[in-house]
Design brief:
Four copies of one chain form a homotetramer. Chain A is an alpha+beta fold. Helix content of chain A is 41%, strand content 13%. Chain A is globular, with a radius of gyration of 17 Å.
């Protein structure tokens, strides 16, 4: 039942994975990126436990969307594969998913706090706070844990594809960030931005119990990068 | 209407832009530097959305000072171009402008706090606090947002060229630092120093509700680098 | 009385030592890793005071387990050698030991606080808090100080090899982390993880007086990597 | 009046200066190291304002100890030269001096706090807190400012060469650390350690209002590296 995805997708997923250590978001082998080919009904994901410096396009694993079966690849797919799959199934506009344990985003996840919108750096990408999920229940942990991690993310966004486009990332309580985008590259960019705004937010909160910035400023920054009136280069 | 600026300016602006990631102030493509040729009535600025590692002198965009028209270059100029233009028009002594989203300076901007003068590292370059602007109004955000961002900076310094020379940088509330200098290279040096003193200030404030350092010490450090009695090498 | 250990062990210990600076855990020559050959009754350890960038496999020192005598090597073994030896003697399952002065783990050690379990990053590797020892007494410092440092670690874990496997690292009060694992490579991985979770924990504690994460989530993360039901790639 | 120092001293001072950016302690051209040749009555110091990446042994400046005259070199010596000279004259055991604006040490200097002894990392090198000077007076700033900076350091240590050996560094209030050692290399090592322990101390103080570590432990760590009973490799 081998299914071959286009080489261009494998290459993009490889490069997106390698962007994680290059951006300083990786400890050891932590983190993973996938990219989907909706026509072929599969996605390509990092294998489990391979060091970034040894990762090759050939090591990537191809997984079937509808049941999670491995359809190509010699290695085991990332342990978080079922979370990625759940997100692809729930949000049709998603083309790539990234998961990291980046330090400052994890700190918010461990404190079970949303990352608040404290400035334009955040508003350029996320149209609202980066929300933190509630805890998973004992039942959700005991069986299909990774798929349930996806479900709690989907539930937090009310399964709304439009919201998933406007807020392309979420913190899983006590765990860390999952981000997504139109493709693998965009999903890892959102992971990098999520970490950067978490870092800025921690320092901002230490400096002041800040009042929120004016909504018109945040709106301006989001809309100059997104939607019909966008004029910010990407 | 093509206008060619001297190659030496393009090269300086290119190198000043590349100093941003080298100094660790860049996330993705964030940040931009420009340099002005007042005789030709134009300035040269980074294009929008080009990764630093691919940036070439040819990619830089030449913009006319008096109306912001692009007069040379294949790419779109930085979204922040109008802010740079406003600063060049208001402050005749400025030869270069830099904007970054560096983490600690942004934290002060997001907390809407001036960076206070806490030591000689700050006083060596900035003759007083690095001030933070007030919020832009809804009207200032709705139309000519980027130019208005320049205006709020100019207003903060009372349009005073002398003050702009003594305090070569400002924090735009909720956004981040804009710095400037005699040329592009100096403007990016001031961005690097702004981030360094913000980082030091955050730790200092965490360690103590500090009394301000003695003014005579700060005066000594500023004047040994600036003005007629300067003897500090640059 | 020269004893030659297998080249493969020397090479593993060399690479594990070099992983310390590569992971950003080293200041100057600080830190050391050893690996044991239980059949030969010896362990191999970094020499004292050699810069990482000059370290060669030939510089490693072979030490006899039962009495600490140097049995091979031109250089003096690490000052902390007796601590390593004590841990090997007390815990039969340990194959490698790492000691660092990594910044955030040391901060917990200096605050004499356990690193609490605040999330899944921690629970993936440590089945409970990374505990901090009590202070050494004046007598324990005056004589056999390094061996006594090992003893206070062993006592903290009740000399229980099973606990040492489940919590592969400890903070020595006012000093820093000692971690271990099945081999030298695993012990340094645990040092890297210990530092990463300490860094996350400091930020988490600053953001919130957090309630502990649900135990079922932590249990799930530990058991998906360890024990008979493990399915997480390494 | 040209005086040539031994090439070995120039080379050591060059390498010690280059260790500053390599250790991450430099912003732009900040920081300087010197080394003394007491027999020749001169010291060699970094020139003012030269970027580290362009610094060559030929750029170093040779300065006469007794009056501060430049006796060899094309460039101006570091602005802080008179502070170095004052320290060499006051403390006969000093062979090298380093000054940096490293972030965490500066934070303590700006908060005008000593770096307290919070653990063995500190006690391995500094036999007591790294003390912070009082403010310089207006008179001390107005004339011979740099030499007076040296005097306030010397006064803080009661001009005691023995204390200068036991505590090889001081924070100048609102300014930053000056460290020293038997030679240039040792002085920069002490600058690196000063920054590392300042970083650890800031995190430790954030985690706990710590009680001081037991003195017998600190004594043990200092004496295993220093004095007649030392057995720690360097």
């Amino acid at each position: 039942m081998s299914v071959h995805v286009r080489d261009v997708l494998r290459q993009e997923v490889l490069e997106a994975n390698l962007a994680i250590p290059r951006a300083g978001l990786a400890t050891l082998t932590w983190g993973n990126v996938s990219g989907v080919d909706r026509e072929a009904g599969v996605f390509v994901i990092k294998p489990s436990g391979v060091p970034y410096e040894e990762l090759k396009a050939d090591d990537l694993v191809t997984v079937r969307l509808f049941d999670g079966a491995v359809v190509d690849g010699r290695l085991r797919p990332s342990t978080d594969t079922e979370t990625h799959r759940c997100l692809y199934l729930a949000f049709p506009s998603i083309g790539g998913v990234t998961h990291t344990h980046s330090t400052h985003a994890v700190a918010f996840a461990q404190a079970r706090r949303d990352i608040p919108v404290l400035g334009t750096t955040h508003a350029d990408t996320f149209n609202g706070p980066i929300p933190c999920t509630p805890d998973l229940t004992a039942e959700q942990c005991a069986k299909d844990y990774e798929y349930n991690t996806g479900r709690i993310i989907v539930d937090l966004l009310d399964g709304d594809d439009e919201r998933a486009r406007e807020v392309p990332g979420v913190l899983v309580a006590n765990h860390g960030p999952f981000t997504w985008g139109a493709g693998a590259r965009k999903s890892v960019e959102h992971a990098i931005i999520c970490e950067a705004v978490a870092d800025m937010a921690i320092h901002t909160l230490a400096l002041a119990a800040t009042a929120p910035p004016p909504r018109h400023l945040l709106y301006r920054h989001y809309t100059r990068k997104h939607g019909p009136g966008a004029y910010y280069g990407n």
